[in-house]
Amino acid sequence: MEQKHAIGRRKSAVARVYVVAGSGNIVVNGRPMDEYFKEGTLQYIVNQPFEVTGTAGQFDIKVTLVGGGTKGQAEAVRLGISRALCEVDAEAYRPALKAAGFLTRDAREVERKKPGQPGARRRFQFSKR
């Protein structure tokens, strides 16, 4: 199997994911996944596509991450892995990933701060007198 490539995005995080047949190693920005994502919940998010498709330990993953926080990065990696698995074998993996919702790009972004107020929607306290 040749190398497959996919991109996952979430908030301001961008993950470029490269998938090759292997033994299940996941490397993120040159570091092992459990060293990069220290929280167990984030490691769980990254491994979800493999659990849904039953392919744990069958592919080596190399990820390049840019931007965002740790949660957004983990979800960007999940989307990238899901898309890459669909490139490997769409007929086998796509229905399970689609049903789990891992192929949907979460388009929610942070709303910009507006001038004359402290945040995007928050207003300064109104004083009648």
What brief labels describe this structure?
alpha+beta, 129 residues, 37% helix, elongated, Ribosomal Protein S5, domain 2, 5-stranded mixed sheet
CATH architecture: 2-Layer Sandwich
The outline comes out as elongated
Biggest sheet: strands, sense, closure?
A: 5 strands, mixed
| Count of DSSP H/I helices | 4
Specify Rg, calculated over alpha carbons: 18 Å
**What number of structural domains do the residues give?**
1
* Span between termini: 73 Å
What is the CATH topology? Ribosomal Protein S5, domain 2
For the largest beta sheet, what order do the strands appear in spatially?
1-2-5-3-4
CATH class: Alpha Beta
Order of helices and strands: EEEEHHEHH
Beta-strand content estimate: 15-25%
- Structural class by helix and strand composition: alpha+beta
Low-confidence regions: none
Helix fraction by DSSP (H/I, runs of at least 4):
25-40%
Mean pLDDT score: 94
Tell me how many strands there are: 5
